[in-house]
UniProtKB/TrEMBL annotation, chain A:
Domain of life, source organism: Bacteria
Keywords, ordered alphabetically: Membrane, Transmembrane, Transmembrane helix
TM helices/strands, residue ranges: 44-64, 76-97, 103-121, 128-156, 168-186
Keyword Membrane: yes
Organism expressing this protein natively: Neoroseomonas terrae
Name this polypeptide is given: Tripartite tricarboxylate transporter TctB family protein
UniProtKB/TrEMBL annotation, chain B:
PANTHER family assigned to the protein according to its UniProt record, in alphabetical order: TRICARBOXYLIC TRANSPORT PROTEIN
Name of the protein in question: Tripartite tricarboxylate transporter permease
Coiled-coil region: none
Location of the DUF112 domain: 20-437
Keyword DNA-binding on entry: no
Source organism (scientific name): Neoroseomonas terrae
Spans traversing the lipid bilayer: 20-39, 45-69, 108-130, 150-182, 318-342, 354-378, 390-406, 418-443, 464-486
Organism domain of life: Bacteria
Pfam family, one: TctA
InterPro entries: DUF112_TM (IPR002823)
Keyword annotations: Membrane, Transmembrane, Transmembrane helix
Amino acid sequence: MKLNTKDLLSAALLISLAAAGLWLNMDHTLGTARRMGPGYMPALSFGLLLFLGIGVLLLGLFNGPDPIKMWTPAEWGFLFAGAVIGTTAGMMAGGMSGWIGQGWNPLGIGLFVGCMVASVVKSWRPLFLITAAFCLFGLVLETLGLMASITLAVVLSAFADETHHPKGVVGLVIFLCALCWAVFIWELDIRVPVWPVF
Amino acid sequence: MDLFANLAHGFSVALTLNNLMFCLIGCLIGTAIGVLPGIGPVATISLLLPITFGQPATTAIIMLAGIYYGAQYGGSTTAILLNLPGEVSSVVTTLEGYKMARNGRAGAALTVAALGSFFAGTVSTLVVAASGPLLTSVALSFGPADYFSLMFLGLVISAVLAQGSVVKSIGMVTLGVSLGMVGTDVQTGQQRFTFGIPELSDGVGFASMAMGMFGIAEIISNLERPEARSVMSGKIGKLMMTREEFKRATPAVLRGTLVGTMLGILPGGGAALSSFGSYMMERKVSKGRHEFGTGAIEGVAGPESANNAASQTSFIPLLTLGIPANAVMALMVGALIIQGIQPGPRMVEAQPDLFWGLIASMWVGNLMLLVINLPMIGMWVKLLAVPYRYMYPSIMIFCAIGIYSLQNNVFDVYQTALFGVFGYMASKLRLEAAPMLIGFVLGPMMEEHLRRAMLLSRGDAMVFFERPISATMLGIAAIALIAMLLPALRKGKDSALQEGG
């Protein structure tokens, strides 16, 4: 047997998504072929997905080897820690009153905290610092305004690439603030606060 | 002639100042991203979707189309000068084009690429104009069963032609279709898979998915790879071709145009496939075939014409049937739907401005690109001096503001971030994102047509095999699937796509 790790993981992903979809679809009436209910097409598509996932699994047992780089213990650990701490932070934020618990802020806080924890490990930084910076932008946009959000997100994302110099980052922030103001505020006039609102 | 009256109308739309300006902007952006490796048309178009919403639908589509075919022009520049394909469709151009540059004929290679592309663009624009109304009248006789089968065929072919394992690609298509089921059921109003989140009742955000899987995931993958960019060393040389080069290039351009025009219409086809197809053809039939590998001009002229022709004709299924042939066209469907236009056979009559204006603007855009590319080539090459560390935060910020401005809702920002992580994971596992996007766009349409077809046939599934059009589509889909399961053919496709991108 030549195991194809990439295919096996893909199969696991497809099968679990299909299983989750089929399970959630139990709430919807199937209907008949003539009068299809809301659950009919999802049952078909998730069912096919399950079938294909199993197909990928079976093929993956033989068409390898295609190994995937193993994660180091640190990578595993901080990924796990990020997931746990992020979820907890999100849940706690959801229970709080005021700005922290408002709207989608708990989701943003959870994602941001989780990604920040995981990006302690250097090899996770491209993935999780970019995601964290993206979430940070969403988190502060409506309160601190566009300029502050751009600054924070760009500075945070700059840590994902070691070749950055402080001077270059400052220049980039100024350039992007000016460009985004010109394109989105002056030209397109989108409704977003530019400066902090309290 | 009706065609000329319609084209005249198209030019009157395309030549308004506003449309002309956005066509130029689209072509400039397209050339820029074509030159720059690491950002492709799919990511750029999804990035710029929100910016186009303030504009009328015609203007928006003209600009987005300009980005797509502009990228095909720009991609050839760096392929020839630096052996660095800016787009997948120019991978084969590096094979002969870079050799020509090293022989001191870079100028001639660039000229033939631009002129060939322009010629191909002109011909294929005419093909779109002529076949559009024709196909539309055929499409109007399609019943729901035929539509369902046609979409099914489109999905199968887009999966079969995707890189790597066919089963995995079909899996991704199916996942896309399944994700398309999220949201309010059109017929009963029931909420499906929304977890009580009001933002999901309109479905998973199309722009979020495209930006996340093509924009954010790309950034992350690029950051993991160390940067490898060479600075241009050689001189461009004279732009003029010699008489002999011209003589050799002409038939190659003609053949490339033909190949590209045909392959572009194919679902799942498009620029990358046709430039490779044309290269293979030139290597077999052209007069200069013995020179291949040492800088044969046919190897530049053919593929460059083909990819530009294909990028125009891949609009045909979209404009006549409302079915996207590739991921870029799926984005166009998304753009049209957000603008309130349902793409489909009725578009020619209901939206003549859009249909004919777009076609005319394609030709105008090709003309612009000729000017943008040839005399100004040095400027575009300088663009490569911008390091990636300045590009990725800019792409990220544009994504973030753009996605927020769609509905003024931060939920979309978080949704995009999640799709970014998912897209990164998928690319690590070699699960293709493009088939998923096409499946996502076609999924809800397929459900609607399936329901309607079954209602009309009183629950008899045989309707799909009894209607001749539908049966033909399903037959072709079955042949395509079986063909790809044959090991010999699959190997051929894999090696073809590996070279051709």
